[in-house]
Amino acid sequence: MTKKIESILITGATGHVGYNMCLAILESNIKLIVLGRKKESDFRNNFSLPCKYFQWENPSDSLPPIESMEVDAVIHLMGEPLAEKRWTKKRKKKFNSSRINTTRNLVKAINSSLGKVRLFITASAIGIYGEGRENTFNENSKVGEGFLAKLCQEWEAESKKANCRNLQLRLGIVIDNDSGALKKMLPIFENGLGGNISTGRQWMSWIHIEDVVGILMKILFDENLEGEINVVSPEPVRNKEFTKLLAKSLKTIAILPVPKIVLRLVMGEMANVILTSQKVLPKKALENNYSFKYKNLNEAFTEIFSWKESSFDRLFFQKQWTNNSLEKVFDYFSDEKNLEELTPPLLNFKVVNKSTKNIQEGTKINYKLKIRGIPSKWTSLITNWNPRKEFADIQIKGPYDKWYHRHLFKTLAGGVLLEDKVVYRLPFSRFGSNILNSLIRKDIETIFNYRRSKIREWD
Length: 459
Known about the structure:
Helix content: 25-40%
Number of helices: 14
Largest sheet: 7 strands, parallel
Number of strands: 20
Distance between the termini: 40 Å
Shape: globular
Strand order of the largest sheet: 3-2-1-4-5-7-11
Structural class: alpha/beta
Radius of gyration: 24 Å
């Protein structure tokens, strides 16, 4: 009988895929170990999930701490982001060192662990196939040409040197509210400036974040899976269809195409990532009976943007783990008096009164506060009241056109995972969303960062 995986080391834990994978690991009652560049104190400020942490300050120039290899599996997601800036010679060098050198050093440590590590999973990308035009790729297809294809080839070659079962995740475009690709697209589309890229005929291979995690979890427990694996939906779409469905989900229009020449002028060589046509299928996942939760892009976008009733709605959300009981945490948050403690002093936040003795479904709460020094009154209505699980407060009088704050509580790893989801709409929506959103967004982030710091004091 195969020994159960009881501990997993992950790099790139603060990235979007990494964080969601950490949650799944903890939900499966597997011990989580994180390897990162920062000092532990700095890392803990932004990562609240319970884990053992090891610092790896110079991943491309040194081996990780040998004691970090006392695990059953390693998931390697670390790498310099490709899409943040133009691809200069200096940045290309960073891309190579942060992927190839780092993977090489990690593999050396794995191979020195005397067989303790039994599984090594590393990230790669469908960029390995290069320009496909109308061709369809699967894991058996030939790899392509060009900088990104070569980078992925060398990256994968290093990971295959691990003396244990190893897999290379060829990731497509990951979609979720907080995924890198969509985060860059949303401001453009929400302001009505979206459109097809070039002709719009190039193929795009995408995957919902829940299926990324689903495939990763299957890999952990299915020893038939090894080698290269395409992490994409079985239903790729053309850019024209992607654009149409995204605009529809965002309740907006997308009529401003981006010419190829403009994209190349603005982005340089990096534009090739967007212009390349790649119709990639997850042959190996399907053959091994992985059941996709989101095959269809329209269904995926509908789920991701289910919170959006208007093109002017915006979303803020955060998650935070605390080492306290569910009863204690829920009781604290369902007492309106504690809101004053969780709100930055600069807001002069005060609870005036409420309509019922204890908070319950239908309770109205009146507050007063100052927004950028301007006195304001706020009345909230409590809805979705489900003790120990969730509740929501809706602004029925106040400075926003819309404010819907959903509080969710979930037991995890002996503590509680708190989740805040705020859907808001600014006054004078057409102008407010475009002009004031960045300013108001910073105010909201300041408020919730303060809340995070107060919650950290509990632990």
